[in-house]
From TrEMBL:
GO molecular function, one term: aldehyde-lyase activity
Occurrences of domain Class II aldolase/adducin N-terminal (ranges): 9-183
GO cellular component labels: cytosol
Keyword set, alphabetical order: Lyase, Metal-binding
Gene3D superfamilies in the record: Class II aldolase/adducin N-terminal domain
InterPro entries: Aldolase_class_II_sugar_metab, Aldolase_II/adducin_N, Aldolase_II/adducin_N_sf
Pfam families with a match to the protein in the record: Aldolase_II (PF00596)
Matches recorded under SMART domains: Aldolase_II
Species name: Azospirillum lipoferum
Protein name: Class II aldolase
GO annotation, biological process: pentose catabolic process
Presence of the UniProt keyword Mitochondrion in the record: no
Disordered: annotated segments: 210-229
Amino acid sequence: MTSYLTERQAVIDGCLAMNRLGINQGMSGNLSHRVDGGFLVTPTSMPYDVMTQADIVEMGFDGTYLGDRRPSSEWRIHRDILRARPDVTVVLHAHPTFATALAVHGRAIPSFHYMVALAGGDSIRCAPYATFGTQELSDHALTALEGRLACLLANHGMIVLGSSVQSALSLAVEVETLARQYLYAQQFGEPVILPPDEIARVAEKMRRTKYGQPVGGNDAPEDTARPRS
């Protein structure tokens, strides 16, 4: 009997949403979800709109897998990130147009806009190029993601991390939007870059409000709006 039905459906829904949101095209992306003792990952070379829960591949951190479907060629990235980052539940990999346009030039996204802080630091790094599906690529990605929730992959695409499929999708949309804005801004020259201390302030404010939603109690910032009495 197939296990982790809720998580399997979340992976399928996330893949369909990637294409619907313009984060990915065709079958070029892949998605994983942590489960007990391992993770679920999309199968290789299978259109998202025909995937069923049984097609999602269950893998162990030792690289073994269950079922008849072979895992995504990028399974090492998913395995290594989930193994190294206990704070992460979902790994999303895609080839969005604007982020990839920067990645093919080996360009990171600097803190030209305060929303860069959503990815966990004052830049969204670009990992060096390595052949897809290799341990070298996975190693590069892990380094680029240190202290971060997103990175670009040179001549390749994007990786985004999340606590859920929805949070990973939301961040992927933000990163692709930032990439588009950065490319447009460069038409007028290199944009002004916000300093690290400002990005740190922004990140703390985002953390305390869960980006717009106060945590509550004493953790709410002083400028939180109050209802009328």
